[in-house]
Every structure is written in structure tokens, then in C-alpha cells.
Amino acid sequence: MSPTAEIPLILGGHTFISQLGSDPAASEHQQGLIVQSCLDSGIRWFDTTYQPERLALGRVLDSLGRRAEASIIAWNFFTDFSPREPVGEPVPYCPVHIDQILEQLRTSYVDCLVLAPSDDGEQNRQQEQLLLGWQKRGYVRSLGLWITDLAVIEHFPNKQSFRFAIRPYNIATDDAASIFAACKRIGWETLATSPFFRGWELDRIAAEAVAQSLGPDATVRPMLADLMLRFTLFQPDVDRVIVAIRKTEWIGRNLESVARGPLTIEERQLLQRLRTQAAGRNRWWRRLLRRL
Known about the structure:
Mean pLDDT: 90
Strand order of the largest sheet: 1-2-3-4-5-6-7-8
Distance between the termini: 54 Å
């Protein structure tokens, strides 16, 4: 794999915020170095779920002068928040939102605009038509759909309106395989999120490995991160993986994981065993807390 080849990883928007992850937040300077290193390494796709993420990525790409090299994903989250505030919920798209998104990203178009649907079918249809209108006018190049379960797919009869299907896929998402397979049968490209479940699942499994004397945390954590990323990336129906990266050195580690390819049988068995045991330990601890 050449250094400039496109990599099937997407830099997650949670790189740019302190919430929704167990890793320390990246400073503005570090964010710039991370984006630059991703572009230099062949990671061309960038996710911006929340408004502060759009503002951060827009600032970085503008300062680097490299917008043309990046493919940007944006969502229908419009809450502004500080590092200690909640991130907010998705809201229905309305006509003013496209101007806000483009201004925040400092661009004239978005490569993929994602719809996180509501429970209102008519509202979702109206949003779909609004997004298609923006696409026709050149503000949006493709559309994505957040898939919580198989029922969401049935709520959108015009399935060819969308190019991408997005949802979590990791060692703890038991229902993901069937949902991703259904999305591929439709013809959608699939983007998996949360290979480490925002770092929390990695924390639990690493703690279990240490408890079993497989090594110190500094040794088992990078090994398990490699296994968890490869578990998600090399599933049969996964095209790309969205992963937050808050340190530049983790970019190289993730690229090494991509180059290693699918898990071996032994690696998969080890990961599954540690995950099962960690889940059992967590259930035991919760039962104990309820008794105290």
C-alpha cells in the first residue's frame, strides 16, 4: 500500500470535541497536525457530526488550503456547545441549514450530507426532498442515512436517493451484520462507526486483559485497539470506518492495522473471549452496586 493511496478510514468528527470519548481532547494545534497528517497519509474523508466539529474542520482545512483534497460529511446537528455541555440532538433540516453548514465548513459544497431521521415519517419525507433539492443545486454531492435498525430502511421508499448507510459496528453490536448486509443488497455504500465504542469498550476489554495478566495496559491496549479496528474494517459488508483520532501517532497505528488485513482465527477468538468476559464482569459489578 503506497503512502498516498486512499485509505478506507474516515477521520471522525469526535476528534475535534472533548465529549463522546475516553481519550483526552486535542488542542487546536493538534487538530491541525492530525488533519494534515491524515491528508498526507491518504485519509481523505472527514466526518463532522456536530456543529463545533464543522467549525473546527472548516478552520483547519481553510488554514491548510487543502479543502479540495478532502471529502466532508455533515449531519443535522445544530447545537453549539462548550467542552462540558451536552452535544444536543438531531433536528429536522430546514432551508436555512445549508447556508449554516457551508459557512461553518468554509466551503461551497458538502460531499455527503447525512440525515439522522426522526420518528415522523412525513417529516422525514419532507427532509429528503429538501436534501435532494440542495443536491440538485450543487450544494451537496451525495446523501447518507443514519440507520438505527432495519425498520428505518423501510421508511424510505426512494432508497436510491441515498448513497451511504451509516451505523455503529463493533465487537459489541450483535445486530450490525444483518443490517449492513441489508444495506449492501440495496446498493448503498456502508460506513461503520464506533469501532472502539468511543473508547469505552476498548477500556473495558483492556482492563479485562490486564486482570487476566496478559500484560500491562501500555502493552495490551494498542494490541486490542488493532484487533478492534480490524474486526470492524474487514467485515464483509463494511466499506469504510469512521474513527476519531486525537493524537497524530495513532494515525500511523491505524494505518498499520489497515495493512495487516483481516483478523486471524486466533485473534478473533481472543477478542471475543475478552469481550465476553469483560461484559460478564461488568454485569456482576452492576448487580453488586444495586445491592449496596
